[in-house]
Amino acid sequence: FFFKQKTAYELPLRLVGSEMCIRDRYVPAEASGNNNTLVVVSGSGINSLDLHRKGTNRPSYQVTVNIYDRLVRFGVKELEDGSLAYDSTKIEPEVAKSWVVSNDGRSLTFKINPDAIFWDGTPVTAYDVKWSFDRAVSLGGFPAVQMKAGSMTSPEQFVVIDEMTFRVDTPKSSKLTLPDLAVPIPFIINSKVAKNYATDDDPWSTEYLHKNPAGSGAFKIVRWDPGQQFIYERNDNWLLGPKPGVKRVIVREIPSASTRRALTERGDADLYMNVAAKDAKEFKSEGKVTISGAPIDNCLHVLALNLDYKPYDNIKVRQAIAYALPYEDIISAAAYGRGKPMFGGSEKIPTNITWPQPFPYSTNLEKAKELLAEAGLKNGFETTLSFNLGLADWQEPTSLLIQESLGKIGIKVKLNKIPGANWRTAALVEKRLPMHLENFGGWLNYPDYYFFWAYKNGHLFNSSNYKNTKVENLVDDTMHMSTDDPQYETNVKEMIAIAFEDVPRIPLYQPFLDSAMQKNVNGYASWFHRQLDCRSITKL
User: Fold this and answer.
1) In this predicted model, what pLDDT tens digit does every residue of 340-356 receive, in sequence order?
2) Predicted structure pTM score
């Protein structure tokens, strides 16, 4: 698609004709030599400009981050190696210049910054915030569940006090409400524009906003060629933070990891997002480009065992597999050392609430055989291990290592390769894979938040179909509890102890989010949503 801006929001689209040559279809590589243009290569592209729309994919999250604003944002911190990462403990103003929390913690009142201006020059008002939040909780799907995590479920909770004052009311005080307003979901839309395209069948203008953004963010998206590239241009009227250091960002979709690497090595790409662990290790040793990487907060690569399928409903079988996994080999051959080990813990009962933390399992084939025998499966069994071809860089070698190691205790494993486009439906929506590799990272950096998504029955990332009444109650009681409450630590330790014992999800390691960039690129930060935030990047 090509956006040719007639007015601030009327962005008619046309298909880029197949007769166009590659030079016309892609911005030339020479753009990487321009200090005002950042050329980014990524393995997958966007499928929508509207994160609230059903079916919007993960790469599209970055569009929302860059072209829309939120009431608040997370801060950024410097890590020990000089890399930058978001700071989950720091909430900063964005559209809201200030806010006040009521004495009972159940109301948050925000003052809108008069410098918050939509692209068409109209001010951002409390009415726009309310319409946008009403939309987020009303359209259903992942956005609504994410808002629910912050105790926001109903439009009645969002109150316009006056044009520049907005209030959020919650049924109970929650530590998650304010940080949940800093994630990508509660972005603020120019409701005056969006409403012009609403219909009885589409009251939230999802079809219009799918291709026509209506924001106030630091960048505008000016071109989108599906499957090829999209282009941001800086909004020079954005006043809610330091002016972005580059005027234009070109994000090219390059499915081949070897091609992404070659473009980076030649200097034709300024930034390579989400580098495979092997490439990150080699880039780092060669020293020609900068590698910025850190363990992803609240994130684990796991082997998931689906309790709806026998014999994984037997705890001894799950524990046997936990003792049979070749953890050290996986860290070496699949993570290339770019992962924090989550095995070999010394305590079966957690002594602290650090999360993630190593589980009390390490490779012990004799122990694994004993447990299988106790489960009545002395001779093992046959099973299928599924993995995502879209994440084959770590999942394929991990699967082969697991297949080999489980064979040593009599478990015959057949590998099932699932295309990335089909993975989410099979693993997370339908939850029909008996044994599979999975990854989940919680956007809000609390252990109980991780358990909310990955251990509660029916929730999206509980691909193991695990159900434990005690865990359900602990999560419900703890999710909105202050971390200062003495019961908080007790509850979290109990959750972790149950996860240690039941192991429906066997942690392998905490992955790094690695990106490679030319030496003249600065300001890149690693974010919990694992997408590119262009606003802080400069190019010398």
Assistant:
1) 999 999 888 999 999 99
2) 0.88
